[in-house]
Amino acid sequence: MNENKPFSERLRDKAAELGFAACGIASADAAPAAGARLRKWLADGAYGDMIWMEARADQRATPRGLWPQVNSVIALGMSYAPAADPLALASAGERGRISVYAQGGDYHDVVKRALKALARWIVETAGGDLKVFVDTAPVMEKPLAEAAGLGWQGKHTNLVSRRDGSWLFLGAIYTTLDLAPDAPGQDRCGSCDACQRACPTDAFPAPYKLDARRCISYLTIEHAGPIAQEFRAGIGNRIYGCDDCLAVCPWNKFADAARANLAFAPRAELAAPALADLLALDDAGFRQVFAGSPIKRIGRDRMVRNCLIAAGNSGSAALVPLAIRLLDDEAPVVRGAAIWALGQLDSVAWQIERSRRLASEGDPTVVAEWLFPAVTPGERGDA
Predict the structure, then answer these.
(1) Which of 3, 45, 217, 381 is the most buried (most CB within 10 A)?
(2) Given 135, 202, 256, 277, which residue is catalytic?
(3) pLDDT tens-place string over residues 25-72
(4) How many CB atoms lie within 10 A of CB 204?
(5) Predicted TM-score of the model (pTM)
(6) If you average pLDDT over residues 176-194, what whole number do you get?
(7) DSSP code of 95?
(8) Is 346 a catalytic residue?
(9) CATH: 3.40.50, 3.40.109, 3.10.450, 1.10.10. Which one for 7-84+104-175?
(10) What is the dihedral of CA 108, 252, 75, 16, to 10 degrees?
């Protein structure tokens, strides 16, 4: 590395060496409007069950709220641009769709390792104190990344890059060093509303605003209980996250899969998993299949719940026996989803099982599922 270069250039060179596709610098107070937007979003209740968003709002609202000593923020982006079309499995009803970001290695681990390596280099090169963050801390990575010039927050509320489209994992390094900031990103969405129109559950009440309670990523990942009836059909065969609003962004045409970190290359068993295989998983099997994946964090019960929603949308008679077997599952959230799936796939079998099981069911959420009418063959469009 050329020691005669300015520190900011050497920083970018080192970041690129460590696998980052983007690196920029912002002052600690460079995104003052972000805190106000956060508080309005929380006041609207749009965060759903994510109570940690409210609990640490003051720390999240501004970098100095979390660490008073910070002077500069180094924002970093690591590409996970897919080589294949993320929407290709939309009509493959017996296959589950897993969001692109979760088909490979766990980004928490991959990005944090690179952040720590870059942090060590910064301390050795320029000194100062610092802290590294990726996703799990109360840090507003997206507005900070915009302030540091990595891109802009698009109408889908995610960061958009002119070079990497909507496919960047974000991390941040807070430092006591007083570094020269980069020019902030400029909004280039224009009149495009493709991401707004793509959302299957109408999770965008307005451009640049997300109601997490309606978002498929939230419903399949963060939400632990039964998924509301009104969203189940829209979920389709998405069993972990949703790429639709990201995948339709026109700026993705500049994203090159060759720039993606190899750690995020899709694992064969996660690229197009069969619902039948996932519905058969017990807890040990779940942990084995999803070892090293961010998916492991949601646990077996939530994943099987998601797969049952997808099964109910599949129209596949082959999945009926699996739905019936899961009516005996220990987890109420699984039993409830199995009832709905069976009702969508075979109304006669649903009536038979209802007559056998309703009186002895002790969980009120599961009872509520039995009391919701099954779909009749005519409603399914069957001949």
Answers:
(1) 217
(2) 135
(3) 999 987 655 555 656 645 666 556 555 455 555 555 588 888 899 999
(4) 22
(5) 0.90
(6) 97
(7) B
(8) no
(9) 3.40.109
(10) 80
